[in-house]
Amino acid sequence: MKTRLALLLLPHLTFVSSSPAQAPPTAAPTLPAAVLPGEPVELSQLRQQYALRALASSKTLAEQYAVALGNLAREVGAEGDYEQALTAQRLRQELADLYARSLDDPTLSNVMVLKAADARPSGTVSYDRTTGDLTNWKSVGSLAVWDVQKIVPGKYNVVVTYSVAPMGDPPTRMSIYTVSEDLITGGEFEFYEDSSLAGASMNRRAGQVADTGGWDKPAYLQLAPITLNRTSARFAVKITRTRGSGGVMRLKEVRLTPVKEGDTPASAPAAPLDGNGAPAPAVDEVTKINETWTTRIQQIVKPYVGAYIDKVNKMAEQAHARNDEEAASDLQVEIRTAQRLVERPDRIITISSAATPTTSLRAQGFKEWEGATYISSVNNTGDEFLVSYQGESVPVRLLWVTCPPLSVHGGAQVKMCSDYFGLDPDDIYLLGKQAQVFTDAFLQGRPLKILTRGNKDPDGHLLVAVQLEGVGDFAGILVDNGLACVNRPTARAKNSRRFEEMTLSNLKEREKQARQRPIPPGAWAVSPDQEKPAPSANTNSTAN
């Protein structure tokens, strides 16, 4: 009876432990081979994890089988059937060895899979239940977070499974209310351990993704291994740069696999391709190069900046001595700017096509306000709004561009915008509302850098350039989205005139690029003059 019981339980063991070729009942149970010939690494990992889960789920049954084998060995031994007793002891030992070996193997039991369905998305990111992906990675700062418990400390390989289409999905319909987007996809992200505890800062890895052939064609990106020192952690994926508005990627999962001692880091199943079909740059090489350059720049710049700060400090002391507090305040701002340059020397080589160079603005007599913030108000327009600086509310107006007014009775400004875009006054009013909404949404909650000469327009608005870190000149953003007219130059002084003409020429070039998009933005989406070059707006708002 007991022999029949053992034979009845044995198939359960062989089901969970045998390889695809079923082992005979008396064979030693074994896990599948780590890698079968020609089998992708990803499939091998999944196969081994399935076997592990099967072993874990049948552990209670296996323990009962082990007890039965022990009892059988003792009883048949007492009856003198030593051969059957030895067979029962051997099977019991092999069963114990199998569980001890497999459940203690970190390459099987400690794999962490950060699935899209388990993430907490933030920003524009959302979970698509149909595809099982995290989608809409469209803005810098958007992220997804996973909290993981019961981590075995050690070193882990990181593989990201993602997909990127050649272009983003276009809107189903266009109207004057819609700010048209360029649908370029791809960009850069960062995977990191989200913690302020020791060692977490070393677990930040940069990633760059590009077209994989379609949203439904996944690829794999291998990042450098990370070292985890705690039994629980929070992981995050965050967008750091977008190439356009079509979406950086769709994220399927992030897989963390323990690195065995003596092993070289595992390679990803497939290398991501850029838009030309060539392998994308090795992410970790890019990170290393950036870090190396930053360190070298810091070493070169530090003594020069230090000497410059000493000289400016002396000038500030002299200004205090002659009671010129305004000059002293400006010099203190310059000192803080120089100090930040030492802390972030990479800013020296950061070039943004969207930025108007701050040094050029300073050379033209502009003063800089750091840390200003946008104040939302029903009276704001696309180019006229309130900002808060040092506890004061200041009405400002953008230099170099003009947004449509919020009323069809806006007189000369309505006619000017109507002629510029080739639209009816009613459409100009709608465009003005869109510009107002866009400005409010874009500037709300962001630290602003205000640059001004101190001049005001006839309505008392301070004429300013507004800049945002990583974005550049906000006037250019409005032009990029077809929400503002580019003004004509009004400066009279030779140097100021040359500078203004250069700035306006840059804005006109950006407008030209916007109009050439597959789906033109803003007013250009509905303008009958889309094929004609836009005239410059005739306004005196930029008077110097």
Which terms summarize this structure?
544 residues, alpha+beta, five-stranded antiparallel β-sheet, five-stranded mixed barrel, 12 helices, 19 strands, 37% helix, elongated, disordered N terminus, disordered C terminus
Would you kindly provide a written description of the structure presented here, covering whatever features stand out?
It is elongated, with a radius of gyration of 33 Å. By secondary structure, it is of the alpha+beta class. α1 packs antiparallel against α3 (59-78), α3 runs antiparallel to α4 (82-103) and α11 packs parallel to α12 (494-515). It starts with a helix and ends in a 29-residue tail after the last helix. The protein has helices spanning 2-17, 41-57, 59-78, 82-103, 106-109, 283-321, 325-343, 358-363, 412-421, 425-443, 474-480, 494-515; strands at residues 112-115, 120-122, 126-128, 133-135, 143-148, 154-163, 187-193, 204-209, 219-228, 233-242, 250-258, 367-375, 384-389, 392-398, 401-402, 448-456, 462-468, 472-473, 485-486. 37% of the residues lie in helices and 21% in strands. It contains twelve helices and 19 strands.
Write the layout of secondary structure elements.
Layout: H1 2-17, H2 41-57, H3 59-78, H4 82-103, H5 106-109, E1 112-115, E2 120-122, E3 126-128, E4 133-135, E5 143-148, E6 154-163, E7 187-193, E8 204-209, E9 219-228, E10 233-242, E11 250-258, H6 283-321, H7 325-343, H8 358-363, E12 367-375, E13 384-389, E14 392-398, E15 401-402, H9 412-421, H10 425-443, E16 448-456, E17 462-468, E18 472-473, H11 474-480, E19 485-486, H12 494-515
Parallel strand pairs: 14-17
Antiparallel strand pairs: 1-11, 2-5, 3-4, 5-10, 6-9, 6-11, 7-8, 7-10, 12-13, 12-16, 13-14, 15-19, 16-17, 17-18
Helix pairs in contact: 1-3, 3-4, 6-7, 9-10, 11-12
